[in-house]
């Protein structure tokens, strides 16, 4: 047993056996064993082996039965194969009595400390139609093979050369919408696969990029694919050590389509700027200019080539004020105020012949002044550790010239316009009554959303990056309409946690019906030069809460609620029981979607192992902020079973969910 059973006490569980063989440094073998709960034999185990070596061992994993109201009863049995110390393969056959059978093949490898990868192949032999919304029960396409492959490979060939490859491919566009339990995956407009090779140079970098977008909820055979793109860039090169800084970005790309014309594009972007000019150490001015030449092998209506020349000129004036307030005990508070004014100019150009693929092709005229103010409060304790108390930003743009008269559509992924199988080479424009002043943008972060510098006993430095967030924060992001009054957008995220007893997270998103501001552009991320075509009102919220209860229970829930339409697209309810000495635990979860339900349980025997399924990730995300540093959890986490670090995420998100 691994229970803290003192003399005379009955352990919560233990394994009894008639015979045992111990192979030092390898594993222990038990014969005629029983799993006893409170000394009552419950589960017979004719033979049992358990590794006691630090090296990974091949073998069967704990089986996971379950039930899904869409696919019926399910059973999953995984086999782990430790091929070498640097690679392994997990084969997980699974059966659904109302759907079919299949398997997951998960392969992981580590070539060295900076080169590794993990790949997942999910295969389903469908015998029955899935009972989900959008599936015609009279369809003849019943028995078929479906699947998904996803993964990522990163390799540091040398200190300057890095390779990144990723894949996300499915057998049919409806695969995720019918079989996935992830709301985010069911709404994905496309699957993204790509290859990036980046070579760092003395004064910049050289890269090769290939990208394939598999249409799911959006796009079709006429979707442009970026295969390939070659680019080079360098910045802030000062000839002869002078005050002038030069830069140059150049790239060439070919865009392929299964149907429709193909097009190649070359883009050159030289830039010139100077170091900041200081006036009395109070205000600093930074001028900058970028020239852009873009060449296309095909125009909108003909196969003739076309090109466009434009420029972006800006002048930035910025200042920074700071004052430190000393407090008792060696503590202090730093208050900073940073006002900034930026003027930008882009001349109007004719875009009627230019195929619109991405932001490089949409360079509208810009005669804009953007002024902003950032104020921060930073606290420092007696040990010199700094924490943000308040980060406040206000910004607005003004058009000294003409106002906007036409706007592009703001389309939501999955909508009829966005999901059209034909990609428009020119966007539809709608007449709008533009304004001189943009909406006022406000962003405030109260508290420090950064992770606390906590390193638990027996863990490594990298643990810090995988601890759950436990800070108290309030983030507000809003736009105020100076003409009509009121807020055109209002987004908040509030998080409050009382030690490890309970926490509440509330997220809210609201957008008023009408035009919405475009946030930034390819030239400047904080500028508001355009608005999108009017859209309908958007209003929804998310609520996450968890608390510790008496008798070893920790419970939590997460609710997604569409206030505008009065419906909930998803509800997650979870619970975890831990016995007093935490030598075992049991987790429960219930997921409610508009067209489906899923529920199951998981068991952990500390030091032996735990059952893992789709609900493991749900329990972990909701309850882990209250369970930092505890052992006996049904997942690998900081402070979990013997403080082990979790293994790399498998990314098993497609296909029928694990029970």
Describe the structure.
The strands form 4 sheets. This protein has a 26-stranded antiparallel β-barrel. Strands 1, 2, 3 and 4 form a 4-stranded antiparallel β-sheet that branches. Residues 413-422, 451-466 and 638-659 have low confidence and may be disordered. Helix content is 3%, strand content 54%. Strand 29 (473-480) and strand 30 form a beta hairpin. The chain is an all-beta fold and 659 residues long. The protein is globular, with a radius of gyration of 29 Å. It is built from 3 helices and 39 strands.
Note the gap between the termini: 28 Å
Based on DSSP secondary structure assignment, what is the total number of beta strands? 39
Number of helices in the DSSP assignment: 3
Helix content percent band: under 10%
Radius of gyration: 29 Å
The general outline is globular
Mean pLDDT: 85
Give the class from helix and strand content and strand pairing.
mainly beta
Unreliable residue runs: 413-422, 451-466, 638-659
Question: How much of the residues is beta strand, in percent?
Answer: over 45%
Note the main sheet: 26 strands, antiparallel, barrel
């Amino acid at each position: 047993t691994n229970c803290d059973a003192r003399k005379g006490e009955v352990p919560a569980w233990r394994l009894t056996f008639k015979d045992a063989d111990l192979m030092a440094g390898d594993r222990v073998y038990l014969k005629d064993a029983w799993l006893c709960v409170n000394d009552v034999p419950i589960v017979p185990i004719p033979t049992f082996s358990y590794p006691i070596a630090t090296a990974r061992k091949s073998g069967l994993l704990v089986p996971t039965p379950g039930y899904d109201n869409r696919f019926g009863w399910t059973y999953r049995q995984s086999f782990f194969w430790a091929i070498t110390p640097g690679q392994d393969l997990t084969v997980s056959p699974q059966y659904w009595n109302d759907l079919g059978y299949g398997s997951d093949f998960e392969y992981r490898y580590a070539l060295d400390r900076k080169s590794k990868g993990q790949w997942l192949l999910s295969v389903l032999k469908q015998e029955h139609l899935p009972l989900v919304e959008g599936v015609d029960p009279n369809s003849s396409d019943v028995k078929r093979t479906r699947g998904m492959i996803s993964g990522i490979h990163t390799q540091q060939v040398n200190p300057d050369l890095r390779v990144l490859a990723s894949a996300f491919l499915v057998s049919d566009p409806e695969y995720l919408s019918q079989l996935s339990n992830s709301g985010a995956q069911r709404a994905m407009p496309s699957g993204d696969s790509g290859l990036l090779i980046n070579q760092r140079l003395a004064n910049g970098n050289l890269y090769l990029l290939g990208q394939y977008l598999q249409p799911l909820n959006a796009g079709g055979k006429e979707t442009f694919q970026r295969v390939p793109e070659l680019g080079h860039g360098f910045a802030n090169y000062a000839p002869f050590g002078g005050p002038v800084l030069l830069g140059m970005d150049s790239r060439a790309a070919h865009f392929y389509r299964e149907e429709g014309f193909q097009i190649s594009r070359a883009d050159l972007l030289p830039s010139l700027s100077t170091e900041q000019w200081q006036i009395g150490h109070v205000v600093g001015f930074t001028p900058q200019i970028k020239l852009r030449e873009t060449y296309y092998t095909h125009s909108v209506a003909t196969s003739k080539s076309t090109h466009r020349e434009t420029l972006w000129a800006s002048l930035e004036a910025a200042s920074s004020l700071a004052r430190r307030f000393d407090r008792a005990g060696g503590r202090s508070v730093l208050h900073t105020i940073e006002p900034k004014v930026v003027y930008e100019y882009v001349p109007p150009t004719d875009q009627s012949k230019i195929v619109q693929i991405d932001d490089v092709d949409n360079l509208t005229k810009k005669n804009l002044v953007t002024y902003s103010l950032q104020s921060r409060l930073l606290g420092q304790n007696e040990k010199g550790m700094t924490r943000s108390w308040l980060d406040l930003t206000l910004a607005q743009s003004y058009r000294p010239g003409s106002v906007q008269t036409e706007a592009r559509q703001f389309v939501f992924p999955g909508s009829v316009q966005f999901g059209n199988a034909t990609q428009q080479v020119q966007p539809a424009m709608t007449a709008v009554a533009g304004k001189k002043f943009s909406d006022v943008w406000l962003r405030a972060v109260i508290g420090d959303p950064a992770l606390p510098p906590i390193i638990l006993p027996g863990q490594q430095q990298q643990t810090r990056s995988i601890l759950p967030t436990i800070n108290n924060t309030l983030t507000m992001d809003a736009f105020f309409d100076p003409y009509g009054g009121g807020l055109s957008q209002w987004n908040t995220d509030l998080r409050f946690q009382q030690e490890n007893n309970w926490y509440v997270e509330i997220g809210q998103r609201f957008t008023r019906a009408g035009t919405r501001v475009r946030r930034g552009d390819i030239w400047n991320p904080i500028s508001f030069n355009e608005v999108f075509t009017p859209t309908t009102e958007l209003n929804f919220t998310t609520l996450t809460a968890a608390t510790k209860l008496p008798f070893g229970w920790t419970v939590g829930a997460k609710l997604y609620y569409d206030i505008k339409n009065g419906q909930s697209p998803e509800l997650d309810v979870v619970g975890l029981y831990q016995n007093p000495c935490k030598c075992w635990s049991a987790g429960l979860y219930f997921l409610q979607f508009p067209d489906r339900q899923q529920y199951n349980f998981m068991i952990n025997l500390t030091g032996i192992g735990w059952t893992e399924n789709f609900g493991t990730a749900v329990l972990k995300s909701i309850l882990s902020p209250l369970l930092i540093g505890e052992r006996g959890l049904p997942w690998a986490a900081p402070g979990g079973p013997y403080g082990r670090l979790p293994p790399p995420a498998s990314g098993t998100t497609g296909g029928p969910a694990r029970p």
